[in-house]
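Morning F.,

Quick status update on the modeling queue. The single chain you submitted on Monday has been processed. Sequence for confirmation:
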Amino acid sequence: MIPAILIRVIVYPAALYLVLSLIVFFMYTHPKRYVSPPGHWRADRGVENIRLTASDGVELDGWFIPNAKSDKAVIICHGYPMDKGNVLGFTSFLSKDFNLILFDFRAMGKSGGFFSTGGRRETKDVTAAINFLKAKGLTRIGAFGFSMGAATLAMAKNEEIKARVLDAPYASLTRELDFVFKGFGVFRIPLLWFMRAWNLVFMGISADSVAPENFIAGIKTPVLLIHGDSDTQVPVENSLTLHKIAPQTELWIIKGAGHGETADIGGAEYDRKILNFFNKNLQ
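Structure tokens below.
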């Protein structure tokens, strides 16, 4: 009798966690798709609708915003689990000086792909955008990323990117998930362990490898880190960690800004600082 009770006490909770972790894993790696509503800015500026193909065959939906007066370009990378339109509003100022390319990461927006990998395979999406620009003769390329987009750019090894602006990146996906699930208390430990196991089973990717902190020091071109000190989704400690690992990066902490609020609170200084950064480093 006692062994049977012990088996139930151990096996039933484990089975529950197994199922719960699988559900949560699929919710996070296959998020509900968000598609921004049509905007007048896009219609009025003659934005080109484009399709990109990543090296692993994933089709990506994108926009190319040409600037006939410029031979420089900036790639814009959105955050999780949004789409390209979500970041257009606070990055469109870059169109004054640069050609722009925006795209939906795999498994998001109108792009193909089933799994979102938190930035690991999304580096292939960045490469697809670079190849598109190079085919147009644009080789002075910068990149701007927000949240997951920033983390992706921190892990992208593309030497073609001459300057990067990383707004609210996480330093480690494992620690970020631990932070997100902190409300579960100690129960988050087995949940996250199972999720990491599913990551390996279904994608062949270790969550521990999704860590910009392991890549940031290898970036030889200029990097501007931006973070709000009131960010409750991706705490400012993430950018502080990245800057400590790679002190050659430039760090700008915006007081009072939460996640996605750096542009609003930074205001004109946000636009000016980023424009100057790209103009200076895309020579």
